[in-house]
Specification:
By secondary structure, the protein is an all-alpha fold. It is about 90% helix and about 0% strand.
């Protein structure tokens, strides 16, 4: 004999899985778009700076910022993995 509470819980979980899959796809898509936008903007800024005679030392703040942004996104990725 089926248990209505168990059946309802199973149905709710089964309905939730596709929502979580779509949320994961959304987050991955947003992250990819942000990564691409940042990379393009950084590339544009570096090219412009170099064209204006910038030195490695002058580009260091930008490089440091990109490194910090990468560390922050890695931290978010790790948090998402740790809390599936």
């Amino acid at each position: 004999m089926a248990n209505p509470v168990v059946d309802a819980t199973v149905a709710q979980i089964n309905a939730t899985v596709p929502v979580l899959d779509r949320a994961t796809s959304f987050v991955n898509g947003v992250k990819a778009k942000i990564d691409a936008a940042v990379a393009a903007k950084v590339d544009e800024a570096v090219k412009a700076a170099l064209a204006n005679g910038a030195t490695e030392a002058e580009l260091a703040p930008l490089t440091d910022l990109v490194t910090a942004l990468k560390a922050a996104t890695d931290h978010v990725d790790a948090a998402l993995v740790a809390n599936p």
